[in-house]
Model the fold of this input.
Amino acid sequence: MYTETKRDWYAALIIFAIVMAAYIETMALSIPFWDSGEFIATSYILGIPHPPGTPLYVLLGRIFTLLPFANVATRVNFFSALSSALAVLFTFLVTVRLAKMSFKVQGWKAWLAGIVASFFMAFSNTFWLNSTEAEVYSLSSFVMLLTLWMSFKWWDSVGKDHSDKMLLAIAYLLSLSVGIHLGTLLVAPAILVMVLLVDWRTVTKSRLLTAVCVLFVLGVSVHLYLLLRSRLYPAINEDDPTTWHDLWLVLKRDQYKPGSVFVRRADFGFQSTMFWGYFSDQFTMWGGRLETLGRYLPILLGVVGAYFHAVANKKTFVVLLTVFLICSLGLIIYLNFTDHEVRERDYFYVASYHFFTIWMGLGATGLLVRLLKVTKERFKSQVLPVSAFSCLFILASVLPYFHFHFSHDRSTDTIARNFAYNMLVPLEKDAIVFTNGDNDTFPLWCIQEIEGVRKDVRVANLSLLRTTWYVKQLRDHEPKIPMTLDDYQIDGLSPYRDSTGKVWQTNEIVVHNVIAANKWRKPVYLAVTVPDQMGLEKQLLLEGLVFRITPEAYGLRLNEAKMKHDLYQVFNWGGILKPDGRRDESFYKDVNESRLVQNYGAAFFTLAFWYRQTGRMDMAVKELERSHEVSPMFVDAARWLGQFYAESGQMEKGERHYLELVKQYPADAEIRYRLGAVHVAMGKLDAAIQDYKGAIELDPTFRSAYAGLHDVYARLGRFAESKAVLSAWLQIDPGDEEVRRYLEGR
Done:
């Protein structure tokens, strides 16, 4: 009675096709930032990504790289889109099944639950983002929903000879999925709960349990790929698991040293609030003034659906509640996130979001059933209320598509790929470039391995340089990095404090060893994204997105000819600037992309100050305008541009610029102060007084604003007011002897 009919499958396939079309429309056609670049590259070359290695994902990803369309990055990104659409398909089938079991409905009334759950899931914030790029989470979601659906098929077959075969298939799939993402197993306790509630005697079958354990070993044996492939030294070979011991370290993610769940790395209240922030941002239907309503109405629908489910079918409610609690509260406890994570961690909780959408679907059908009971006597035919009510809820479930579409459309985003190109291509032959983390490393690896771009360059990741296996790889495999360290010395590397009190980290030790061993034979560079320049500041020569490390120590310098050539002749500006030089705002740039784009703005910014220092103000203004155009969020460039206008004699332009910035950054005291300086230069002293006062109101400790206000009052002969300003400053900083001596006439 509750199993899927052909019509259910047809409806599911229609939902699949709609969602698949939306994913194809919005998926990335190029290399994204974060782990995606690594997954694309390792899929293409059959490499080994970061622990725990995800061997099954890599093997399946390799198949997708062979598809006869588009480029390699698009093909592997499509893998995620397809996996997510399949996850949505099985969400529809599971939800329809639960609606039939809970409300004793068939046909359209059951489909309504499936449609609402499917669309809310498909276009939820994090799940949709995972669907647009090469990542493990979409495939993991698919396996979780597939195995949950299979557990219901087992329920149908309980008491039949073949019922155990379905459980064996589930066990094998879940054990195999450890090679995708360990989090896939989070659905297993819920399936076990279902087995116990439906037929607890199943778990007492010794032959079945034994078979589940052969199959488990068979499934996880996919990890032998890591051991075998590592011994062939692929270009990307994270953690180098060439021995059984090393393989075990990879599987337990020893590189990341997970801490104890009993020692909280942040207050549990903070961690719970973090989860709630992510959860409440998943299903937003609209923004603006009604954003709060649009954010919480879908969640309320899910809560109502959970209530209906609990009342109507306790067994399946307990199953769904189990997986939801494990994927939410359980992960909050287990993951134990800090309050200073390097990126948002919403994707770790994605399973809780998509299982919650099942309750949202049940909420829609549950409300429909109750509405029909109320209106039964009022309407002779129920077609009108069913149609109107269903359309309302289906519309609500697709509204997140319109709300999130702009921010989730990755189809024209090429920033990560071009960032890698622009960092690699300008380097000299056989260069070594030290990078900082994932986003300035994985895209570089990706275009090196897939496109063959500058494979002569050795990209050395400073984060990985803290590990012994990576240092040995850089030393031993082409293109080799020169160093004088043998295996014994590398294994013994650890931070130490020198006689001056400076603490040397292991990666810093290696960098300086490389520089000494290299003896300037190979050109060595440091990416501008590296925050700690490791005592090399005086040896750095800025060249675009990298600093060349030079033997001379003259302080931070700039290679003007090289900078200008790279910025205007070599760099690919796709996704940042249009061919006419105007900023490309055709797609959404998230916080991470905006931050990395600031590196381009900083290059123009530095070149502008170089021209200013050498007396070429016209060229300085042009470069600073370019900096502001490339990265409008680069506030330093915005602040200085008005002053550059003023210094070049363009007073009115400087004034207009700062007036616009005041609207954009109303709480920025620095901008108010600089506007005041321009007004002083223009002779608009009354306006300058208001600007300086505004800056002081925003930042009472802003000494320069007090000095500016004092000077204007003195210029106007309003000496009492000028002294009052300085007296007010002394209230803030009584230790300012310079101001005190001035007031006392000394």
